[in-house]
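Here comes a specimen:
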Amino acid sequence: MSRFWSEGVDALRPYQPGEQPKVEGLVKLNTNENPYGPSPRALAAIRDAANDALRLYPDPDASALRTAIAADCGVPDDHVFVGNGSDEVLGHAFAGLMKRASPILVPDVTYSFYRVWCELYRIERVPVPLDDAFRLRVDDYARPCGGVVIANPNAPTGIALPIGEIERLLRLQPAVPVLVDEAYVDFGAHTAVPLVSRHPNLLVVRTLSKSHALAGLRVGYAIGQPALLEALERVKGSFNSYPLDRLALAGAAAAVADRAHFERSRDRVVATRAWLAGALAAMGFEVLPSSANFLFVRHPLHDAARLQAVLRESRVLVRRFTDERIAQFLRITVGTDDECGALVRVLREQMG
C-alpha cells in the first residue's frame, strides 16, 4: 500500500476481467465475445468518421446515437442515456441511484462488478441467495431495501426471468430504484424496456458489446424515464462530459440501424448454443438453461479447475470463478461451430 493513496483504496478488490491472451491461434471461449464480427455498415461508418473532425470534441449528448437507440427500442429520445460501455453506465447508476440509507439487494451469484461498485461507492448490499437450481425467486426481494440490482439473463448462470416476474418485482418494490442489467437479453430473454413507461423506478441497462459484436468499441446505454436518467446525467457531467468518441458514436449508430446483421448473428449463436448444450449434456455435464451467449456447466465426476487446465493445454480458453458456490462450474462462450466443435473434441478425448 502506498502512503499516498486515498483512504479506502487499499480495501478495494477490483473486478477481474477474463483473460485477453497475447498469443495467436487460441480458441477463445472465456469472455463472451460475439464470434461473427460487427455490422459492415458499422465498420464503414467508423472509417468515414476517421477524418480531420477528430480534432473536435464529440457530441456530448450523443444525439444521433440516442435517436437510433430510441427508434430500435420504441421509446422517446429522452428515455435514453449512453455511456462508455455498459460498465460505465452501471457505475453511474450505482453512484446516482443506489447510495441510500438502506442496503440494496443483489443475487448472491451474479455479475461480480456489482460488488466492486458497492465497495467503491460505499454502498451496503445484501446478497440474496438463488435457489438450488440457481434461479432467482422474486418473493425473496419483498423486503425493505434501498434498491434492487439484477442481471437478466443472470451472469454467469445464463438463466432468465420471465417478463411477468420482472414486473412483479417492480410491483413489490415501487418506492426504490430497480436496475435490470440486460447485457445478454438479445440471445433469448424478454427485455424489460416496455415496462419503463409504467414504472418510473425502472432502469434497464444494455450493451452493444455482445449482440452487436462491438466489445472493442465500448458502447452501452440505459433506458428509463427522464427523471431517473437525470441522476446518471449529473454523475456523467461530474465525471466525463464526453464519454463516447466520434468513432464510437458513428459505429454504434450504424450497428443499431443494421437490424438484419444483428438478427443473423444472433440466430447463429442461438443455434450453436443449442448444439453445444446437447453435446455437453451427452457427456454427462449439468448444463443450466441459458438465454445468453454462453453456457454454465459442471460435471459430477470431473473437477472444473482440472478441466479448465486440460482445455487450456489444448489451446481452448474457458472461464471458471472461484466463489465457493460456483467453483465447480465452467462458463463457456458460444463461439463458431468450429470453435465449439474443438472444445467438444478435447473434452471427449480427455474424459474417455
The radius of gyration is 20 Å. The longest strand covers residues 202-207. The chain has a mean pLDDT of 95.
